Structure formats: structure tokens, C-alpha cells
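Good morning,

Attaching, inline, the C-alpha cells for the sequence recovery test we're adding to the shared suite. The designed sequence is right after.
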């Protein structure tokens, strides 16, 4: 097993980091939604506590009348407490000198290796975020009629019902909420008569063959629709490939999510805490030389923890399409 080299022998590759940020990140957003389902928040410490939003902050009523002595009633916000503990995730790709020369006419070995590492890491991150949602213990609400029943299902009304629960608890308007929806459920939703009827008031002309997520969000009256398309091979190495969706079909989530980089006081059901002290910039791509194998090593790494930042069911509702 190769020993990780000292930092003096490692070069931070800003050129390869930019490659991922500019091109592959855009492509990943078409398939993976983890970065938007658990918006990133940079933290200076590897592990620490953080405040969790609770119902009392939104629902508790207090007297607002000024007292006869001229004083005003005072309140103290109540928060739960959560802790994060980031873990380092990373992979390395070895580029053999002979292989580099063989394929130099067709591709840049370093760029190809960086892209392979990126897709591996972002897929693993997607699985971790999805696990946070499935393990959160949210109350489940079934749709009134399965969306596969095209004539009588009403996805628009199902979303309104789920949104009202969050509106009542927090005062957040439906227009500010986001929907996480697996690919199969999205396709069922846009084919229902109730949904296509709403398109008449949204776009002119005939119904489009492909309905983009942004248009679906307009029809549903929400901020954004995040279509989950990530897949994983669940078979062990050496066995026949067995593909399944990272976000299982039939399970959706509607709620409040911040934008990546928003301060922690911005309400968000989930967050990704990224430790920045050991990461001078994100993503971190490094390289070093391994002479005993006549190879260059490309390393891609990150240091994160994915966690809920609000009380269960406060900012996010689970919806099952069955």
C-alpha cells in the first residue's frame, strides 16, 4: 500500500480544479441533486455544534402590547442543538507514463483522470445526501391518487396539500419551496391530465413533448423542481451489474432549502458542512509523482458532513406516490 506523501511533494492543481468547476459541475447538476438538496456551508472547524430550527420559533405566540411602565415584552429564540463531524472523502487515480504517451494524441490523461474522480466522488456524495433524507424519520403523506392514474390523479393539488403543512408551521409561502422528485415520478406527474391542463395557462400553443423542470415548477407554484436521476450499481464486485436509483421511485420531498453558500441563519431543512481549514479551495485536486511506478498520481478530495438543520417535518414534508 502506497504511503501518502508529505505535503511538500504535493501540488495543488488549480487548473484541474477549474476544469471540474466549469464543465463537469454543470453536467453533474443535470443528473445529481445532492448539492442543492443539502446546500453547502463552509465551516472553520472539523467538528462543532450548530443551532437547529424548532417549531417554537414559528408557532409560539406572545403578547406585544407595551406595558404601562413603558417597557416592552422580550422573547428569547429557542433552538435545538446539532453537531457535525466532517469526514474526509477522496480518491486517487494513477497515470502511468507509458499509458500517458500511448493516448496523448486522443486525450489529456490528467483531465480524463480528474473527470473520472469527480464523477466517483459526486456519486458517493449523492448517496450520502439521499440517506440523510430517508433516515430523517419524516411523517409520510400519500398522494390522493397514484400519479400513474393519468385521468384522475392531481399532482398539483397533492403539492398544495403538502405545502400548506409547512406554511402553517413556518409561514413560508409555497412559492419559496422546492420539490425533490425521482425521475420516474416526474415523468408520471407531467403526463397526468390535471398537470397538462395547468400548462394551458402557463404556455401558449400545443403541449410540449419535453417539459423542463423550470416549467414544472411554475405549474406547481414552487421555487424549483429537483429531478433526481442518479443511479448506482448495488452488486458486489465481480457480479452482474444491478442498477437502482439513488433516490427511490415513489418517494418525494417538498420543503425549504437554502442556496449553496447562504448563511446558516437562512432556513434550510438540510445542509452540507464543508471543513475549509484543510481545503484551500473547493474542489481540491492535487498531484504528486510516484517514481517507483513511473506514474503521476491525481488526487481528488473533500471534507464534509451532511446533516439536518431543522426539526423533523418543520421545513420538509415527505410525499409518497402510490
Amino acid at each position: 500500500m502506497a504511503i501518502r506523501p508529505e505535503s511538500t511533494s504535493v501540488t495543488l492543481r488549480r487548473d484541474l480544479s477549474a476544469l471540474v468547476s466549469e464543465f463537469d459541475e454543470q453536467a453533474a447538476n443535470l443528473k445529481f441533486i445532492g448539492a442543492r438538496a443539502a446546500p453547502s456551508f463552509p465551516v472553520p472547524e472539523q467538528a462543532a455544534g450548530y443551532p437547529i430550527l424548532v417549531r417554537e420559533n414559528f408557532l409560539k405566540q406572545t403578547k406585544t402590547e407595551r406595558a404601562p411602565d413603558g417597557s416592552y415584552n422580550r422573547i428569547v429564540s429557542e433552538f435545538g442543538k446539532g453537531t457535525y463531524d466532517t469526514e474526509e472523502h477522496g480518491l486517487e487515480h494513477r497515470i502511468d507514463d507509458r499509458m500517458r504517451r500511448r493516448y496523448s494524441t486522443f486525450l489529456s490523461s490528467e483531465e480524463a483522470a480528474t473527470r473520472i474522480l469527480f464523477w466517483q466522488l459526486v456519486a458517493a456524495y449523492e448517496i450520502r445526501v439521499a440517506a440523510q433524507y430517508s433516515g430523517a424519520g419524516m411523517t409520510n403523506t400519500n398522494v390522493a391518487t397514484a400519479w400513474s392514474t393519468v385521468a384522475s390523479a392531481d399532482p398539483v393539488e397533492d403539492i398544495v396539500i403538502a405545502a400548506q403543512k409547512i406554511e402553517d408551521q413556518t409561514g413560508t409561502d409555497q412559492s419559496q419551496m422546492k420539490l425533490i422528485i425521482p425521475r420516474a415520478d416526474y415523468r408520471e406527474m407531467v403526463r397526468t391530465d390535471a398537470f397538462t391542463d395547468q400548462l394551458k395557462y402557463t404556455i401558449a400553443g400545443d403541449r410540449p413533448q419535453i417539459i423542463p423542470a423550470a416549467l414544472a415548477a411554475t405549474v406547481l407554484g414552487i421555487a424549483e423542481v429537483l429531478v433526481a436521476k442518479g443511479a448506482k450499481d448495488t452488486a458486489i464486485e465481480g457480479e452482474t451489474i444491478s442498477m437502482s436509483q439513488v433516490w427511490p421511485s415513489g418517494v418525494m420531498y417538498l420543503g425549504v432549502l437554502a442556496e449553496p453558500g447562504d448563511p446558516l441563519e437562512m432556513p434550510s431543512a438540510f445542509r452540507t458542512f464543508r471543513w475549509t481549514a484543510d481545503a484551500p479551495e473547493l474542489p481540491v485536486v492535487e498531484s504528486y509523482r510516484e517514481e517507483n511506478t513511473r506514474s503521476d498520481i491525481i488526487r481528488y478530495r473533500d471534507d464534509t458532513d451532511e446533516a439536518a438543520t431543522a426539526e423533523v417535518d418543520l421545513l420538509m414534508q415527505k410525499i409518497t406516490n402510490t
